[in-house]
Fold these 2 entries.
Entry 1:
Amino acid sequence: ADPDPLQDFCVADVSASPSVNGFPCKASSQITSDDFFFDGLSKAGNTTNLYRATVTAGNVLAFPGLNTLGISMNRVDFAPGGLNPPHSHPRASESGVVIKGKLLVGFVTTNNVYYSKVLSAGQMFVVPRGLVHFQLNVGKGKALAFTAFNSHLPGASVLSFNLFASTPSIPDAVLTKAFQVDDDVINNIRSKFGF
Ligand code: GLV
Ligand code: MN
């Protein structure tokens, strides 16, 4: 979904402020082989958290060589029962491959049609750009997946955090009406996220 590059590469100068379509380029005299390799996805992420799953991002912020190239990848680790919670990527479609374990992978269309399948090692999935999706570890052990995006910075809007853990909070009057529940239900959900 990102625009096409206008040069071979533009390694991000991450010390500079991001500009309209990414970071400014590092001076070519400063560029080395290391700019085009990244080992940040080699280790399992820490899954000791609310959802028992963690996304390790290999986007332009972590891997400056991706700047302006319109691609990036994540690693997603799941403890047993772990969930990568419903979220969407405003700037990219996603495809993924399960490396280990068994994942229930699902997405919902803008017309509220739900598509899903349980995948095991070697099987792939796709999530069309912007659609809400999740992965749930339904196997007995840990699970691992790698995902790929057509953006150097796909962004991720996590629905539960957007709605119940924003700063400042969305007013109760909005959320009680949106979900047709009382304030105590909204406050109970907020409290799970430390809000
Ligand atoms: C999985 O959905 C991911 O965004 O990496
Ligand atoms: Mn995703």
Entry 2:
Amino acid sequence: VDLSTSIGGVPLSTCIYNASGPRTGSSAAMAKIAASRSGCVLAKSATVSSQTGNDQPRTWHEENGKASLNSEGLPNNGIDYYIDSKTISETLGDSNKPYMVSISGKTLVDNLLMLGKISNVMKADPSIKIAGVELNLACPNIVGKPTIGYDFDQMEDVLKQVTSLPCFKGSAMFPLGIKMPPYFDRPHFEHAASILNKYKSCISYVASINTIGNALAIDSVAEMPCIRAKGGFAGLSGPAVKYTALANVKQMRELLDESIDVVGVGGVANGIDAFEMILCGASAVQVGTCHWTEGPSCFDRMCSELEGIMREKGYNSIDDFRGKLKEWS
Ligand code: RRO
């Protein structure tokens, strides 16, 4: 069976790869992803300058492993690190899988500046291996900054200005993906998708979902939030969010123009979860929390699990079942 796919025209050897966030901050961590069966390596969301993130404790895992919380606050080495040829070669080693960067500017100007830096690096060195850029409109953990994907006017302004950059004029210099927050109400899906569709000539894929923002875990012994920053309010992830993620992937696939690929992310921890995402229309599946808790061997495990399911069902390629969720009569 064949697990290969493509997103935004970028071929991936397997349809399962890492989400931005866990174990993606350094080339040493990303090299382990590159050495696994992950179809791609996606870096930690970058800001213009390096930053250390929120105060500890800023992560929490439920004992049964079904839910996690983070309020990392965008700790990262700064955009220059993630687009540096040394970082990229240390990350990829002799693997020739695609390397993508993620950006999560604190302001629109920061996002424009980072996209300018990426295109400058690519112009200066055409051999630089940056296969795509994921623009994160969904970080829930920055004190004083609302989630862009929940403010449709701001989201439209960001997409309008980003797609007006010279690197997207004519044929774009690199595929652009948009990381979206989860939605919970049909009119919100419709509104978000209609804005994304307006910029379809520049948007290659949409990745749904980021963590469910502003969840709260409480330590009943200490009678305190488990996480320090933002009063304990933090992004919820892990198996608990899979059902929200599946619904987001299904509705995004229904509402987005077919030229925009959908990447499914949220609570994927095994081959069945990946299979379900693809049934809902995902062209590829990202893994965040399971990669965080299990390490990069999760990609090898999930790829063999998905291959097993496909063999059992007689599917040879992911296109045999992608988007083919059946309906009740
Ligand atoms: O670094 C974080 O706190 C973080 C980010 Br940028 C994000 O997009 N999603 C998340 O759950 N945490």
